[in-house]
Automatic annotation (TrEMBL), chain A:
Organism for this UniProt entry: Brassica carinata
Reactions accelerated catalytically: RX + glutathione = an S-substituted glutathione + a halide anion + H(+)
Residue intervals of the GST C-terminal domain: 90-222
Biological-process GO terms, alphabetical: glutathione metabolic process; toxin catabolic process
Keyword tags: Cytoplasm, Detoxification, Transferase
Residue ranges annotated for the GST N-terminal domain, each copy included: 4-83
Listed InterPro entries: Glutathione-S-Trfase_C-like, Glutathione-S-Trfase_C_sf, Glutathione_S-Trfase, Glutathione_S-Trfase_N, GST_C, GST_C_Tau, Omega/Tau-like, Thioredoxin-like_sf
Assigned EC number: 2.5.1.18
Identification of the protein by name: glutathione transferase
Gene Ontology molecular function: glutathione transferase activity
Lineage: Eukaryota, Viridiplantae, Streptophyta, Embryophyta, Tracheophyta
Primary site of residence: cytoplasm
TrEMBL record, chain B:
Superkingdom of origin organism: Eukaryota
Lineage of source species: Eukaryota, Viridiplantae, Streptophyta, Embryophyta, Tracheophyta
Name of the featured protein: Glutathione S-transferase
Keyword annotations from UniProtKB, A to Z: Cytoplasm, Detoxification, Transferase
Catalytic function, reaction form: RX + glutathione = an S-substituted glutathione + a halide anion + H(+)
GST C-terminal domain sequence ranges: 88-208
Sequence similarity: Belongs to the GST superfamily. Tau family.
PROSITE patterns named among the record's database cross-references: GST_CTER (PS50405), GST_NTER (PS50404)
Compartment(s) where it occurs, according to its Swiss-Prot or TrEMBL record: Cytoplasm, Cytosol
UniProt organism field: Brassica carinata
Residue span(s) of domain GST N-terminal: 3-82
Pfam families documented for this protein: GST_C_2, GST_N
Gene Ontology terms, MF aspect: glutathione transferase activity
């Protein structure tokens, strides 16, 4: 008989790994966090996610679930009685939440990553403009989705809050490195307040890395090899 | 009050067809509007300002975008018949995983097969077959990815099944010898009423594929 135990295979610095951890915290589900070593993949990871060989993987009663946003929905559906729903109640609002989560992964985060990798002022300006355009869209999306409540999902943190909020530590690292604010009270007032609420939530705080710690880590992994 | 359902679509689109199939599986009456992708309608630009892409489902004036998002929406709104997603959370997660796999690992090489030639095309063909083989292993001996019932993953794949012949002709290769059971499932899906009424004549897709290949593949 498979035990009901829950494991998350991941790494502390990965924003994608943060997603299932926040979801499990919101539902008060205890889990074992199995950390992968940077640069190597464990037997357990390769066995649990043979198709992509990527983190995060949630293992529940010995069955693996892969892909961070899919894991969040699985947690929400499996432990539906243990906390408020992470998705809105109407099919339309759910479709909107899923739309923005996909936008964040397919368009917004890749442009954020490009800022750190950009070489030269021209390229940096171009990618910054892309991210700011995205932020303006997300600022409006927040106003539309939250309908005056504290989170994208309303009263409580939900799927879209998690999908976007997981990137806040990396966003702050990018702001520090580039000397350029991306989410702030002037450009994105609603998102700025939301970000603070999100990061201070008890389900999020234990798994969100400190900006300084992440900045050190970023320096190591993005270090350009000396000639 | 009757529902107003409009679908902004493009006839050969493997993404648009998914929405058509889902609506027909549920017996939903809808108005199909053909978009000219080189001259997009003001309605499309207004309803999908972020991506400006089809399909867009407009239900009582409110737009839903992104094909599998549209399919999931249709499943949730018209939940009284033909469920497209399983009810068990683990099975649902598996269905979503495979749709994500299809939209990344099948989509990218499929796109290159009709739009490129030479080495790039050869690499794309290899990657495409590799992805189809992984799907075939997942299918196993089930008639559909959904098990006994046509469902979410089958709908996602049908967009590619309808392009099989065009891909084979553009790439000069055959899929069946590599993936016989996937091909059998494809034939089963292509015979379904909702699919027959939604997919164009395969010859027209081949013709379309060669027409755009001339433009992209200089």
């Amino acid at each position: 008989m498979a035990s009901d135990e829950v494991k998350v295979i991941g790494a502390w610095a990965s924003p994608f790994v943060m997603r299932p951890r926040i979801a499990l915290n919101l539902k008060s589900v205890p889990y074992e966090f199995v950390q992968e070593t940077f640069g190597a993949k464990s037997e357990l990871l390769l066995k649990s996610n043979p198709v992509h060989k990527k983190i995060p993987v949630l293992i529940h009663a010995d069955k693996p679930v892969c892909e961070s946003n899919i894991i969040v929905e699985y947690v929400d559906e499996t432990w539906s009685a243990s906390g408020p729903s992470m998705l809105p109640s109407t099919p339309y609002d759910r479709a909107i939440a899923r739309f923005w989560a996909a936008y964040i992964d397919e368009k917004w985060f890749p442009s954020l990553k490009s800022i750190l990798k950009a070489e030269g002022e021209e390229e940096k300006k171009a990618v910054l403009a892309q991210v700011e355009e995205g932020n303006a869209l997300l600022e409006k999306a927040f106003i539309d989705c939250s309908k005056g409540k504290p989170f994208f999902n309303g009263e409580h943190i939900g799927y879209l809050d998690i999908a976007f909020g997981c990137f806040l530590a990396w966003l702050r690292v990018t702001e520090l490195a580039g000397g350029h604010k991306l989410i702030d009270e002037v450009k994105t007032p609603s998102l700025s307040k939301w970000a603070e609420r999100f990061c201070n939530d008890p389900a999020v705080k234990p798994v969100m890395p400190e900006t300084a710690t992440l900045a050190e880590f970023a320096k190591k992994i993005f270090a350009k090899p000396t000639a | 009050m009757a529902d107003e359902v409009i679908l902004l679509d493009f006839w050969p689109s493997p993404f648009g067809v998914r929405a058509r199939i889902a609506l027909r599986e549920k017996g939903v009456k809808f108005e199909y509007r053909e978009e000219n992708l080189r001259d997009k309608s003001p309605l499309l630009l207004q309803m999908n300002p972020v991506h400006k892409k089809i399909p867009v489902l407009i239900h009582n004036g409110k737009p839903v975008c992104e094909s599998m998002n549209v399919v999931q929406y249709i499943d949730e709104v018209w939940s009284d018949k033909n469920p497209l997603l399983p009810s068990d959370p683990y099975q649902r997660a598996q269905a979503r995983f495979w749709v994500d796999f299809i939209d990344t690992k099948v989509y990218e090489p499929a796109d290159k097969i009709w739009s490129t030639k030479g080495e790039v095309q050869e690499t794309a063909k290899k990657e495409y077959i590799e992805a189809l083989k992984i799907l075939e292993a997942e299918l196993g001996d089930k008639p559909y990815f959904g098990g006994d019932n046509f469902g979410f993953v089958d709908i996602a794949m049908t967009g590619y099944y309808m392009w099989f012949e065009a891909s084979e002709k553009c790439g000069n290769f055959r899929i069946e010898p590599e993936c016989p059971t996937l091909m059998a499932s494809a034939r089963r899906c292509l015979q379904r009423d909702s699919v027959v009424n939604s997919v164009p004549d395969p010859e027209k897709i081949v013709e379309f594929a060669f027409k755009i290949r001339k433009i992209y593949c200089v």
